[in-house]
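In full, the data:

***
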Amino acid sequence: MAIVYYTMLSPEKEKIKKLKKKLRIQEKKNAEIRDQMATQRTVFANERTLMAYLRTAMTISAGGFVAIKLSDDMYLEVIGIILIPIGIILAAYSFTRYRHKQKLIEGHNQDYRPTSHEHERAHHNRYGSESPDGLP
């Protein structure tokens, strides 16, 4: 009776093994997709940060301009004269910060090693990097 029970479980165990293997493969693909999506989120976050810096820089410069044009007091004109260059410096800093972060992100993309041929082709098509095994 025990032998019959063992042989009945064997196909079920084999089926479970195959399902587990498929699951591991799918989890690996999902991890690669999550990595790509995380990279895209990082790029978008970097762009949002640039826009926030530029918005702040424009507001500071505009505040300085308004302080100069609409004031009769000397101290407001001095504040305006100080605010305009601060806004310009902040705008320049925002562009240099954005470019530095973008280079770091691009460096991460170049170091990326896909684990499947399908993802390697997608990475090559997207970033134009040479694949290690010569795939197009």
Q: What stands out?
A: The chain has three helices and no strands. The radius of gyration is 29 Å. The longest helix spans residues 2-69.
